[in-house]
């Protein structure tokens, strides 16, 4: 019994003359010189990068930068747009009849019938138009170009179910009669080929604002008129008639009219482009809210129209 156990014990002792693998590795590593002593004269890569990055200013990704307004806490102002919107409000707020606010696209011509060359570099409001004539006209090709743009835009928006653009094609005849009061005139509008009167008004001019755009092909003129309704057809014969072939595009508060105007037999038509605010009464109501310090849509109107 004891003999067997002694042999077993001796076998165990004999097998343990060399240390286990893990222990052997520890002993060997203790005998090896420290390799890192000679290789750590410069800091590790990560440490070096940290030191370098500490010297560089931090650059934020462009999509995470929050830009402050400016040191004064103000947004940049657009004097041009503000001047136009203030002018519209000033000229319309006391009008007692239906108001028309429209912009005609054209060119300011000098006395030689050429495009005016004024000493300004960018689009600007003219405070004096002496010696200049505004011509609301463009070529047939230009007219067709804008027609194509508007048709394409209408198709895109209507397919995407966004705010739709509605198109209406009208052919009308305007007859102009003296109102019997100074230079006033009554405009009677009918559909071509019909005798029924669609509209009969006296258009009273309130004010014009001239905008000269030297970097663009066209200038424009902003006009404010009152449209006074008439119930009785003037007895005098019309002193002037014109035929209109018009495409009207409407979206929300804006209307764009592309019109061929045939003024005199045998003469080529003019090609006009006009932009009109559809609901000037609503705009005036919003202006009154602003004057009373109430919530209003004037700022939105100014940036959109």
UniProtKB/TrEMBL annotation:
EC top class named in words: hydrolase
Gene Ontology, cellular component aspect: mRNA capping enzyme complex
Regions of compositional bias (Polar residues) in chain numbering: 1-10
Ranges for domain mRNA triphosphatase Cet1-like: 78-277
Reactions catalysed, as given in the entry: a 5'-end triphospho-ribonucleoside in mRNA + H2O = a 5'-end diphospho-ribonucleoside in mRNA + phosphate + H(+)
Residue ranges, annotated region (Disordered): 1-63
The protein, known as: mRNA-capping enzyme subunit beta
């Amino acid at each position: 019994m004891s003999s067997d156990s002694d042999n077993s014990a001796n076998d165990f002792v004999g097998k343990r003359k060399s240390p286990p693998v893990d222990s052997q590795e520890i002993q060997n590593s203790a005998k090896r010189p420290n390799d890192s002593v000679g290789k750590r004269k410069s800091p590790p890569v990560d440490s070096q990068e940290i030191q370098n990055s500490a010297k560089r200013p931090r650059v934020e990704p462009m999509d995470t930068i929050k830009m402050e307004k400016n040191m004064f806490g103000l947004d940049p102002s657009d004097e041009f747009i503000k001047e136009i919107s203030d002018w519209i409000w000033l000229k319309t707020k006391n009008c007692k009849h239906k108001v028309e606010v429209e912009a005609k696209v054209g060119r300011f011509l000098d006395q030689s019938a050429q495009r005016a060359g004024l000493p300004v570099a960018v689009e600007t409001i003219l405070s004096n138009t002496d010696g200049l004539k505004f011509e609301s006209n463009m070529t047939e090709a230009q007219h067709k170009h804008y027609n194509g743009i508007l048709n394409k835009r209408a198709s895109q928006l209507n397919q995407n179910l966004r705010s739709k653009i509605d198109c209406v094609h009208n052919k009308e005849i305007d007859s102009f009669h003296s109102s019997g009061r100074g230079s006033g005139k009554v405009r009677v509008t009918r559909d071509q080929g019909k005798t029924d009167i669609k509209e009969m008004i006296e258009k009273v001019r309130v004010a014009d604002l001239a905008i000269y755009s030297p970097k663009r092909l066209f200038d424009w003129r902003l006009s404010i008129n009152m449209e006074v309704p008439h119930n009785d057809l003037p007895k005098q014969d019309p002193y002037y008639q014109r035929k209109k072939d018009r495409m009207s595009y409407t979206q929300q508060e804006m209307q764009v009219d592309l019109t061929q105007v045939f003024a005199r037999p045998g003469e080529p038509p003019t090609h006009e482009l006009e932009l009109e605010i559809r609901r000037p009464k609503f705009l005036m109501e919003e202006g009154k809210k602003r004057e009373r310090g109430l919530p209003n849509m004037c700022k939105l109107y100014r940036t959109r129209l």
